[in-house]
């Protein structure tokens, strides 16, 4: 764990009066340990991470242990659970022996392995913060029954609070993820012409992301009447002259998300398209100008809506105008009208202003901004204006 994360988690533990924190979601496990399970999204038998002032433990299904050992995941203790996943070669070799040593004393269940992890870390009673976001009620009940000497407290909000303020390394990764998304959009813009399908555009975007050693985040490239849909999957719909193109795309670089929205039009825009794009841009820029420490999330929302309405979208009604971004594509704080949360330096926010009319189309802009000690610093490099395709 990097010093920044250590400081944030330590402060959370002290503030909440907890003996330990237990992570269950992929983002929180990664935050505590740097380990990302490829099986996390597909299986209920996924790793837990345990943090205490005396050390860190990973509680992992057998299937993840070989990769943890091979990748030299740096934790103080590794507790495996579940049935054996395979046999051993003869001769086994040093790495294979380390894996077998880890698996010889595996626990029968995640609850048993978590109890063993807390014990080896010296925590045998008291209040333990348990990240509830990935636990179904039955799983919470099983853990509560097995850990009867503890008082389990929901801790998802505590993890969210710890992750809000980013370290320099995290900011660097977020900036690179965003830059890759913008570079990939630019490659797609260069190939767009009438007759190109959404599937072809999406395939090129994905190819450009992979070429830059990143992974695909939530992404959609939509044409014409499909621009009023939220993240529609790519179709065989071909681009036509005069149509809007809506980019709503993301990437993941070293676990951190980049997200950007841009709008284009195939040929010169008509007055309605140009006016909508200008109003959305006015709303986004007003929101970005409002970002500074101690500003509330609600004020950023108000600035965006007020400016977009004044610029021509009189009926614009937005539930939110963005959120934090980091190890998840959307993190705290939510930038909605009623959120009193105040911003802190080193938070990274996605500010977004969409305008969608069913039966006509949609334009949206999304930028990423770093809160600084005196104001803010935009991380985007691409222009915000409506892109006119030749």
Characterization of this structure:
The protein has 390 residues and is of the alpha+beta class. The chain folds into two domains: 3-164, Creatinase/prolidase N-terminal domain (Creatine Amidinohydrolase, Chain A, domain 1, 3-Layer(aba) Sandwich); 168-389, Alpha-Beta Complex (Creatine Amidinohydrolase), CATH 3.90.230. It is built from eleven helices and 16 strands. Helix 3 links the parallel strand 3 (55-61) and strand 4. The protein is globular.
For this structure, what is the CATH homologous superfamily of the largest domain?
Creatinase/methionine aminopeptidase superfamily
- Report the radius of gyration as a whole number of Å: 24 Å
Count of DSSP strands: 16
Supply the helix-strand structural class.
alpha+beta
* Principal-axes shape call: globular
**Strands ordered across the widest β-sheet:** 4-3-2-1-5-6
Concise synopsis of the structure shown:
With 390 residues, the chain is of the alpha+beta class. It contains 11 helices and 16 strands.
Please outline the helices and strands:
Elements (H helix, E strand, L loop, with lengths): L2 H14 L3 E4 L2 H8 L14 E5 L2 E7 L3 H6 L6 E5 L11 H12 L5 H11 L5 E5 L6 H10 L3 E5 L1 H9 L3 H24 L6 H14 L3 E2 L3 E4 L20 E10 L2 E11 L4 H20 L6 H14 L9 E5 L6 E6 L11 E10 L3 E11 L4 E3 L8 E3 L1
Helix pairs in contact: 1-7, 8-9, 10-11
Spell out the key features of this protein:
390 residues, 36% helix, Creatine Amidinohydrolase, 2 domains, alpha+beta, 11 helices
């Amino acid at each position: 764990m990097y010093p920044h994360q250590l400081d944030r988690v330590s402060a959370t533990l002290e503030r909440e009066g907890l003996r330990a924190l237990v992570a269950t979601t992929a983002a929180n496990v990664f935050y505590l340990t740097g380990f990302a399970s490829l099986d996390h999204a597909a299986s209920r038998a996924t790793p837990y991470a345990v943090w205490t002032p005396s050390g860190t433990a990973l509680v992992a299904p057998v299937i993840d242990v070989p990769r943890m050992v091979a990748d030299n995941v740096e934790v103080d203790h590794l507790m495996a659970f579940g049935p054996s996943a395979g046999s051993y070669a003869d001769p086994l070799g040093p790495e294979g022996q380390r894996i077998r040593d880890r698996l010889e004393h595996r626990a029968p269940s995640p609850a048993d392995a978590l109890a063993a992890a807390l014990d080896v870390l010296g925590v045998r009673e008291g209040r333990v913060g348990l990240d509830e976001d990935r636990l179904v009620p039955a799983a919470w009940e099983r853990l509560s029954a097995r850990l009867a000497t503890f008082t389990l407290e929901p801790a998802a909000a505590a993890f969210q609070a710890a992750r809000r303020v980013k370290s320099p390394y995290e900011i660097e990764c977020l900036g690179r993820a965003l830059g890759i998304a913008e570079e990939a959009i630019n490659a797609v813009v260069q190939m767009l012409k009438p007759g190109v399908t959404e599937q072809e555009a999406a395939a090129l975007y994905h190819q450009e992301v992979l070429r830059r050693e990143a992974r695909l985040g939530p992404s959609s490239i939509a044409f014409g009447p499909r621009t009023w849909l939220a993240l529609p999957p790519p179709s065989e719909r071909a681009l036509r002259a005069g149509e809007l193109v809506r980019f709503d795309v993301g990437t993941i670089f070293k676990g951190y998300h980049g997200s950007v929205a841009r709008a284009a039009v195939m040929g010169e825009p008509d007055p309605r398209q140009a006016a909508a794009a200008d109003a959305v841009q006015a709303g986004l820029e007003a929101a970005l100008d409002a970002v500074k420490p101690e500003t509330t999330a609600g004020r950023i929302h108000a600035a965006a809506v007020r400016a977009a309405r004044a610029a021509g979208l009189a009926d614009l009604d937005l539930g939110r105008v963005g959120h934090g971004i980091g190890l998840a594509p959307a993190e705290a704080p939510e930038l909605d009208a009623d959120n009193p949360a105040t911003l802190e330096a080193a938070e990274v926010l996605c500010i977004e202003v969409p305008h969608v009319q069913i039966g006509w189309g949609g334009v949206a802009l999304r930028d990423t901004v770093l809160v600084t000690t005196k104001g803010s610093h935009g991380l985007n490099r691409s222009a915000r204006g409506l892109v006119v395709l030749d």
